[in-house]
Design a protein that fits this description.
CATH superfamily of the largest domain: Galactose-binding domain-like
CATH architecture of the largest domain: Sandwich
Structural class: mainly beta
Strand content: 35-45%
Radius of gyration: 60 Å
Distance between the termini: 123 Å
Number of helices: 4
Number of strands: 62
CATH topology of the largest domain: Jelly Rolls
Largest sheet: 7 strands, antiparallel
CATH class of the largest domain: Mainly Beta
Helix content: under 10%
């Protein structure tokens, strides 16, 4: 197909216009310009070359050709750098034209002329001074300098040159400019772009010389290409600030220090120094003139940051002076006057010491029992002296501003020698001659603490210890000595602390005996403290000599058994000392040995059924332990905790702690069943279960009763039987049937109890859930010491 010649105009959708001209607002093409080529008969065998002709260089880029497409429309993208290169301070133009190559034939298009408008002023208004308030810049607040800030603008790229300059005037009207950005050198960088801003300091040294109420103009230019030709740069809008450069601050004198000492002199006080350092405030960076009355003394300048000024004046006379500071700016205000009096230098004296409260003069090197004195002397009028007792300061005193006399009360003097001086807190610090005295006192000593050594444990008055050394302590006259006595035997001296009065003494090698300690003053009238007594006892290893069941009081032999769940343990230990009782590794608590006999006792309750191993461990000395006492707590019923009981009717029961005994059958009305104390026969002793039959020589009958385990069963039962007034020469026939919960027989044991002296232990053997024993007997037999397993 033959192509049109010339081909149709290229189209730029971001531009506005018709025909062969269009206008492009550059902000519409910040990411590049779109160009569309469309004509009839486009084929993929066509090569389309787009040409942009604008500002030489970056504004006329080489654009890669594209092949045609069957749809008839191809789009090209002009890079944003090319758009930027065609932006100026006034409108600029570029043309767009394409050429199609078909085989060896070339077909040009019509040319589109695009006019690029300048960037809007708002887009370029990106520079400012941060501290400005609106269009006012108060340089009096910028002692640390101002902050110049630049934002980002359209088509900004790394490396593009920038120009900036501040243009101002001094208070005399002279130009006062400062270049902020100079090319070559100043350019956009990627950090600036990434942060969205760039900041740099405008030094106060520049700002402070701007005239008050003058204009400060901020001029700048920017390049949208890498060209460093300033004439080609875009001119940004000029920003104008009104400068505020003056504070009409009334000067003040805030402090007067003596020179060269540097010591501050409060208002209306005096000084011996003939030089002063004045300190005050004024408008920052401004001068004041200092006057002594009407005599000018110099012109210091206030600090540019703080507004503080200082000024040294020397060669002042001994007289009263009145200093003022007058502003050399604004309305020239004058500070409030600061009076200052200079007096003659006098070497201090200390010419009187009087006891207080007596008021009696104490001669040099004299003695006193009072613990306070009034010192007095003369010094430079209105000046301070510091009073020393030896090297110890006792405080300052101020000389009368008219007479120069000073006084000071010094109290709480220690019993010791004292050497007082007065040191001038002015001039060269001259010191008076010393005045000496001695304070004496007779404080009665005390003995307040006796601690065992090395344990450090306090021993109460009248207490007992196994340690043969003790540390005694108490209070006496500060720095004085006391002699320690054990009865009438001296144990050596101790010295009271010079500050606290506390004394201590270690007394060792004490005998096992009673001791009575006192502290006798080695000063004053030799008063003696109250006695403190103790007894040193031998560090006897503890013993555990007795274990008795409770409440029975029956001794349980080593390795023995008991049915009681409480025992009373006793033994011997160091007199008055404590032992701790252990059952195996479990502590059962402490016990204290009698201070006279050394015997200790302890009731231990709630023992579990099983083996127990008791020891007594000393809570003194090296913590020795007694030998172990062992026994076993059995699960038994021996009727000892049951009161005597008797039943005489069938169906009646006797209740004990662990058994229920029920009368099942009898023959004679006199037949009874009882828990009573009969006679002792081995384990059958004290209270036992006894069935009485009212037998005669011709009688032959039996009684029966049930021995039931309360609230439990057992797999084995052991108990003892004993004859009890057996009347039948053939002995008593005893039948014992062991029953389970259902009343079913488990096992039967028959015995003949031949005589009243017969003693035997019955063992059921291991059975399944023994609940009760049915007993049938035809003569008197006693039961005791049931054990349940």
């Amino acid at each position: 197909m033959a192509l049109e010649n010339p081909l149709p105009l290229p189209q730029m959708p971001q531009a506005i216009g018709s025909g062969a001209t269009a206008t492009l607002a550059p902000l519409n093409a910040q990411t590049g310009g779109r160009v569309i080529v469309a004509y009839t008969g486009m084929s993929d065998k066509h090569s389309i070359q787009l040409t942009m002709t604008g500002t030489p260089g970056a504004g006329s880029p080489t654009i890669a050709p594209k092949p045609g497409v069957a749809s008839g429309s191809v789009e090209f993208l002009i890079p944003p750098e090319a758009i930027a290169a065609n932006i100026g301070n006034t409108a600029k133009t570029f043309t767009l034209q394409y050429e199609v190559t078909q085989g060896t034939n070339k077909f040009p298009s019509l040319a589109l002329t695009v006019t690029v408008t300048p960037l809007p002023a708002a887009e370029l208004d990106k520079l400012s001074i941060v501290q400005a308030q609106g269009n006012e810049l108060d340089v009096t607040q910028l002692a640390a300098g101002g902050t110049f800030r630049a934002g980002v603008w359209a088509f900004m790229k790394n490396g593009q040159p920038v120009w900036a300059e501040l243009k101002g005037k001094t208070s005399q009207g002279a130009e006062h400019n400062r270049v902020l950005w100079r090319v070559p050198g100043a350019s956009v960088n990627q950090t600036w772009i990434n942060a969205g801003k760039y900041e740099q300091v405008i030094p106060y040294s520049y700002l402070k010389d701007l005239g008050h109420d003058t204009d400060l103009e901020l001029h700048y230019k920017l390049a949208l290409t890498l060209s460093q030709v300033e004439a080609d740069a875009i001119v940004g809008p000029v920003k104008i600030y009104k400068v505020k450069a003056l504070e009409d601050v009334k000067p003040a004198i805030t402090k007067v220090n003596g020179s060269p000492s540097g010591v501050e002199v409060p208002p209306d006080e005096t000084s011996v120094e003939t030089g002063v350092i004045l300190t005050g405030t004024a408008a920052k960076g401004q001068e004041v003139e200092v006057f002594d009355d009407t005599t000018p003394k110099g012109q210091p300048t206030a600090d540019t940051s703080t507004g503080i000024w200082t000024h040294t004046i020397t060669g002042l006379s001994v007289a009263t002076h009145s200093f003022t500071a007058k502003a050399k700016y604004g309305s020239e205000q004058t500070s409030t006057a600061r009076p200052h009096t200079i007096v003659a230098v006098v070497v201090p004296t200390l010419n009187s010491i009087k006891g207080s409260p007596s008021g009696v003069e104490i001669p040099d090197n004299g003695f006193i029992v009072e613990t306070a004195v009034t010192l007095s002397g003369v010094a430079s009028k209105g000046q301070k002296v510091e009073i020393f007792d030896g090297a110890v300061s006792k405080g300052p005193a101020t000389a009368d501003p008219t007479t120069g006399v000073w006084t000071l009360l010094v109290s709480a003097l220690a019993v010791a020698g004292h050497s007082f001086t007065a040191k001038a807190l002015y001039g060269s610090g001259a010191v008076s001659a010393a005045r000496t005295l001695t304070v004496t006192a007779a404080t009665a000593p005390t003995l307040t603490s006796v601690k065992g050594s090395p344990s450090g444990v306090e021993i109460p008055d009248g207490g007992v210890t196994v340690e043969t050394a003790v540390t005694l302590s108490g209070v006496a006259a500060k720095g004085q000595k006391v002699e320690i006595f054990d009865g009438a035997v001296p144990k050596g001296p101790a010295t009271a602390d010079p500050t606290t009065g506390v004394w201590t003494l270690l007394v060792s090698a004490l005998t096992v005996a009673a001791h009575s300690f006192t502290a006798k003053a080695l000063y004053g009238s030799g008063s003696v403290s109250a006695a403190r007594t103790l007894t040193v006892t031998a560090a006897t290893a503890p013993t555990l000599t007795s274990v008795k069941g409770s409440p029975s009081g029956v001794e349980i032999p080593q390795g023995g058994n008991t049915g009681e769940t409480a025992v009373t343990l006793s033994g011997v230990a160091a007199k008055g000392q404590k032992v701790e009782i252990f059952d195996g590794a479990a502590s059962k608590g402490p016990a204290t040995a009698n201070p006279t006999t050394g015997v200790w006792t302890l009731l231990v309750r709630d023992l579990a059924v099983g083996a127990h191993n008791f020891t007594a461990k000393a809570l003194y000395s090296s913590g020795q332990e007694s030998s172990t006492r062992t026994f076993r707590v059995r699960d038994i019923e021996n009727f000892e905790s049951t009161p005597p009981q008797t039943v005489s009717e069938i169906g009646q029961s006797i209740l004990t702690g662990k058994l229920k005994i029920t009368f099942l059958s009898k023959v004679k009305s006199a037949d009874i069943l009882e828990v009573s104390r009969t006679w002792d026969n081995g384990p059958v002793r004290g209270l036992s279960l006894y069935g009485y039959l009212a037998l005669t020589a011709s009688d032959s009958y039996s009684i029966s009763y049930s021995i039931e385990l309360r609230d439990r069963t057992a797999s084995r039962v052991l108990f003892w039987i004993a004859g009890a007034n057996i009347t039948n020469p053939a002995g008593a026939n005893l039948n014992m049937v062991f029953l389970n919960n259902a009343g079913s027989p488990l096992h039967t044991i028959n015995r003949v109890v031949p005589s009243s002296t017969h003693l035997e232990q019955i063992d059921s053997g291991v059975l399944n859930n023994i609940k009760s024993i049915k007993v049938t007997v035809n003569d008197q037999v006693s039961f005791d010491e049931f054990e349940f397993l």
